[in-house]
Amino acid sequence: MQKLWIFKLTRILVYALFRLYFRIEFEGVENIPARGPVIVAPNHASYLDPFWVSAAIKRPMRYMTWDKMTNLPLLGRLIMAYGAFPVSLEKGDRAALRLSLDHLKSGGGLVIFPEGGRTLNGKIKSFKPGVVRLALDTDAPIVPATIIGAYKSYSPHYLFPRPFKIKVVYHPLIKLSQPEDRAHEKKYLHDQAERLQAVVSSRLDKSG
Questions:
Q1: What pTM was estimated for this model as a whole?
Q2: Do the strands 142-148 and 167-170 form a parallel or antiparallel pair, or are they unpaired?
Q3: Which one, of 85, 72, 78, 88, lies nearest residue 51 by Cα?
Q4: C-alpha separations of 127 from 81, 115, 180 in Å
Q5: What is the pLDDT along the chain (208 residues), one digit of tens a residue?
Q6: Burial (CB count within 10 angstroms: exposed 0-12, middle 13-18, buried 19+), residue 30
Q7: Of 11, 133, 145, 167, which one has the greatest count of Cβ atoms within 10 A?
Q8: CATH class for domain 4-201?
Q9: Domain locations in the chain as residue ranges
């Protein structure tokens, strides 16, 4: 369960630390709705991505995380207190999906990484259509987000993050409409996932 006081305290500390170490900058924070359901959908290159993408967002956000991350001492407890809930990447997780649906339907904010996992080579991976399906099922708008510099700073090949500059871009909000033809729903979901990926990629430099 997310503890609001921990969120508020860590947000201040994390923001200050990131400004010093990563010289982090944010663009388009005004595109995040102050209330109501919203999905923030960033690219994924680092374990720090959830913290980077959430640092400038004033409202509490929840996000899915690899279940093995929650078992780490101290960091695992911080991740859970910050709003994460575990997902099994190997077999999927119906409980996590239900929690996501309920959270959005109750007006909450959710960070989802549509690639399904971190990039191992710095190139953005194909977005999975699940984020589109979730948005349609909950009537939640999507804010695509680009995290620039994440792979340079803390790729899966590094033990510790390096002090490269990070910039987070929150793109204009996208409100999806229900597909007109249910017979072609699968293609619609795929096309919208590609649309989101194109928006995120538009600000992702080659070293991102």
A1: 0.89
A2: antiparallel
A3: 78
A4: 27, 5, 22
A5: 455 666 667 677 777 888 888 999 999 999 999 999 999 999 999 988 988 998 899 898 998 887 777 777 776 777 777 778 877 766 667 878 888 999 999 999 999 999 988 999 999 999 999 999 999 999 999 999 999 999 999 888 888 888 899 999 999 999 999 988 877 899 999 999 999 999 999 998 654 5
A6: exposed
A7: 145
A8: alpha beta
A9: 4-201
SS3 99: helix
DSSP secondary structure of 9-75: HHHHHHHHHHHHHT--EEE-GGGS-SSS-EEEEE----TTHHHHHHTT--S-EEEEEEGGGGGSTTH
Length of the chain: 208
Amino acid at the residue 192: Q
